[in-house]
Automatic annotation (TrEMBL):
GO MF terms held by the record: S-adenosylmethionine-dependent methyltransferase activity
Keyword S-adenosyl-L-methionine: yes
Functional description taken from the UniProt entry: Protein-lysine methyltransferase that selectively trimethylates citrate synthase (CS) in mitochondria. Seems to conduct trimethylation in a highly distributive manner rather than in a processive manner, and thus introduces a single methyl group per binding event.
PANTHER family: CITRATE SYNTHASE-LYSINE N-METHYLTRANSFERASE CSKMT, MITOCHONDRIAL, SAM-DEPENDENT METHYLTRANSFERASE SUPERFAMILY PROTEIN
Domain Methyltransferase type: 80-194
Keyword field: Methyltransferase, Mitochondrion, S-adenosyl-L-methionine, Transferase, Transit peptide
Gene3D superfamilies: Vaccinia Virus protein VP39
Protein localization: Mitochondrion
Name of the protein in its database record: Citrate synthase-lysine N-methyltransferase CSKMT, mitochondrial
Family, as annotated: Belongs to the methyltransferase superfamily.
One Pfam match: Methyltransf_11
Amino acid sequence: MAALRRALHEAALAAGTRRTLAGSLAGSCLADRGLWDKLHAQPRPGGVPTFDWFFGYEDAQGLLLPLLRGAQAACPRRVLDVGCGTSSLSVGLYAKCPHPVDVLGVDFSPVAVAHMNNILEGGQGQTLLSPGHPASRLRFMQADARNLEPLASGSFQLVLDKGTWDAVARGGLPGASRLLSECLRVLSPQGTLIQFSDEDPDVRLPCLEQGSPGWSVTVQELGPFKGITYFAYLVQGSQ
């Protein structure tokens, strides 16, 4: 959570909104859509189209790519990125993964979804994205990760949560529990849910173990990136 707060602080400085954001962070604002709409609407430093909390696709690919091996062009691995925001994670998987993937990024901010669709379509001077594999696909959809009812149960082989639990939990653990429940509902029985966070395992693991009966829960260290060690919490079904 410390890294998420730092990233929000840096984004605010870049947009000249330090005082407003600092006041907002005093409450449970990280679960508030209005804050994210404002942040996603801000210009990005250096004209970079994506903005990552924690770290980007390049730093996570070593963990992700082995989970996507063996996919066939006729049946790409389905990947769900919950709370995708304007991160490079979904875009990186689509454009750089050598294995066929069908990636869906969902976020409750319509501003974020519109921005990512704009990147996908090559709008506003952006280079049109090309897939890393000819059979790969990428879509974005507005949806609340705590209620993924439009998505069928067991329909994704890989579900990614990069900081979304951290943000939702600021609004209370019941919301975070609903998020976990929905991620596991749409995950295939042989699939993997990965939560990326800087939260200590002593805090996160008990929550995941309690909320994921029948699933295997493990943790791996990532980084350090920019001086911060992160954790990848893997919730997996039978392999």
